[in-house]
From TrEMBL:
Keywords linked to the UniProt accession: Signal
Claim: Signal is one of the keywords in the record: yes
Protein name from the UniProt record: GDSL esterase/lipase 1-like
Domain of life: Eukaryota
Signal peptide: 1-26
Keyword Magnesium tagged: no
PANTHER family linked to this entry: GDSL ESTERASE_LIPASE 1-RELATED, GDSL-LIKE LIPASE/ACYLHYDROLASE
């Protein structure tokens, strides 16, 4: 028996409808326990927001980026998917959100993003907020920008800083309220999870630019500024209804390929790692304080620094052949940021099998590593993900306070 494409589509639709308990649907077609994902931060999470109004130093929308999964490249600073992409795959199907078409068409563009063949739930990738032609934010949005930091001065004018990311989120909140009404919008925002990767660029930029590191501030003062700006953004989201947050610690980048090649004798940058450790200590203390001060505040903090360092020191234990040399770039450790040959230096090398290298380019882990990190973030125990893991936040009881 031959079944046409249209007949198959109808059959799938009918099966899905029969499998959905009608008690879970609201009058607006929304699953009551939908959990949206909103993403903020830097290139560790950026899905392609830097397509717009910047230089090639802050873009990754060219080959060989994306070579392991995307064709054409999307702007992710990796050979494939990133941590939020894998987190998105973990969504339970019962949390899927269906918006009325009026919401989709109330936004300035229509969605043209390719869908992810999500191995867990079959949901689309959480889209880049600034992707031209894409505003299908039914499952959340990704505001992260490669090169961004908590400080506005970190690559100012070339990236979307964290405060501006918050402003974009505010614009999206207004769309939700206009389309869903205040009550449903607040329910969505309260049940959502907010992911952050922020801080690395604030500590990396002075090293890369050969500035007198962190002058005129002491390490303590500099870190307090970074944590203060991050806290302001968290507070801004909390005021709009956000309650559940996921944070990756700032990675210790002092021994990464892009830093070592700049150091005398290709040694590690001890000062960079020292101030980053201070950042992570202060972040932990701040989050514990916010847990007491902010109503309903819950969080998962993933110690990505330890996970990366373990893989650098013992790559074979985690399925890699190389933990210190990047797959793509040039110079010592392939640490010169020339991957793709469009950042001022034409010459570069690219390895034969990027999955064997912990680092895809001078500053970014590959897709295999991102998958491993996402799994730890999702399921990790309290030794590395505390006080909750992301699974606990996504599968927790919805916040009904609002």
């Amino acid at each position: 028996m031959v079944v046409s494409t249209s007949e198959l589509a109808v059959l799938v639709f009918v099966v899905l409808c029969l499998s959905i308990p009608t008690c879970c649907l609201s009058s607006q077609g929304i699953f009551d326990q939908h959990v949206a994902l909103f993403v903020f931060g830097d290139s560790l999470f950026d899905p392609g927001n830097n397509y717009i109004n910047t230089t090639t130093d802050f873009q990754a929308n060219h080959w060989p980026y994306g070579q392991s999964y995307f064709n054409p490249p999307t702007g992710r600073f990796s050979d494939g998917r990133l941590i939020p992409d894998f987190i998105g795959e973990q969504y339970p199907k019962s949390y899927q959100l269906v918006f009325p078409s009026s919401f989709r068409h109330s936004l300035p563009y229509h969605n043209t993003m390719p869908l992810d063949a999500a191995e867990y739930a079959g949901l689309p990738l959480v889209p880049a907020y600034l992707e031209p032609g894409n505003n299908e934010f039914t499952h959340g949005a990704n505001f992260a920008s490669g090169g961004a930091g908590a400080l506005i001065d970190s690559h100012a004018g070339f990236v979307v800083d964290l405060q501006t990311q918050l402003q974009y989120f505010g614009n999206l909140v207004n769309h939700y309220k206009q389309s869903l009404g205040d009550t449903k919008a607040q329910q969505l925002l309260s049940n959502a999870v907010y992911l952050f990767s922020c801080g690395a660029n604030d500590y990396q930029k002075p090293v890369v630019n050969h500035h007198s590191i962190f002058h005129p501030y002491t390490h303590e003062q500099y870190v307090d500024m970074v944590i203060g700006n991050l806290t302001n953004v968290i507070q801004g989201i909390h005021e709009k209804g956000g309650r559940k947050y996921g944070f990756v610690t700032a990675p210790l980048i002092g021994c990464w390929p892009g830093i070592r090649m700049r150091q005398p004798g290709n040694t590690c940058s001890v000062e960079t790692d020292d101030i980053t450790r201070l950042h992570n200590q202060k972040l932990s203390r701040k989050l514990k304080k916010l847990e007491k001060e902010f109503e309903g505040f819950m969080y998962a903090k993933f110690d990505i620094s330890t996970s990366i360092n373990n893989r650098m020191k013992n790559p074979s234990k985690y399925g890699f052949k190389e933990g210190e040399i990047a797959c793509c770039g040039s110079g010592p450790f392939r640490g010169i940021y020339s991957c793709g040959g469009i950042r001022g230096i034409k010459e570069y090398e690219v390895c034969e099998n990027s999955s064997e290298y912990l680092f895809f380019d001078s500053f970014h882990p590959n897709e295999v590593a991102s998958r491993q990190f996402a799994e730890i973030f999702w399921n990790g125990d309290s030794k590395i993900t505390e006080p909750y893991n992301l699974k606990a936040l996504f599968e927790g009881i919805p916040n009904d306070e609002l």
